[in-house]
Design a protein that fits this description.
Helix content: over 70%
Number of strands: 0
Low-confidence stretches: 1-10
Radius of gyration: 18 Å
CATH architecture: Up-down Bundle
Mean pLDDT: 82
Distance between the termini: 33 Å
Largest sheet: none
Order of helices and strands: HHHHHHHH
Strand content: under 5%
Length: 195
Amino acid sequence: MLKHYTYKIQSSFNISTLFTWSRIFLCPLIIISIIKANWFYAILIFLIAALTDIIDGFLARFLNQESAFGAILDPIADKTLLISCYISLLFSTCKFGLLPLWFICIIIFKELLLILGGLILLILKKDVMALRPTLLGKLNTFFQIIFVILIFLLNYFNKRFCIDIFLYIISGLNLITLMQYFFKIFLKETGFFYE
């Protein structure tokens, strides 16, 4: 039994998950760059991190390395990257793109609930693969990546731009995504819809 469990864990560590881990390991470098207002390196490192998100998904499908471990790690890496950027911007000396506290609270609240939901599915031994990003979830992540890059670029070129529309779009997408996961995935997997 232990040997089988160890094999499952080891088989989850592959080239695609290495790219996913690299996204997490790049977060401290991005945080330092943001706090020090070194926007060139912040943009460069963030783009590399965003690129690993594309590469790990492609490799997982192309090399048939999709796994429950990867399904859990990939969104955690995305959340760690984006939330690290948002919180760091609160403590940076950026001139443009200061984020309101309510926006960051919405993001963190949604992500914590999704993590909690994933843990509950694990405890109930349900299908964790059901928590893989939906099309709406991927769109939400895409908008956030563009948003963060925009803030970095505004500060790098010292330009002013109204970001309010992005705040409202991303906040709305996060709340809708949360409801989608809750009603269509979490309740379905736990069987609450069918009892």
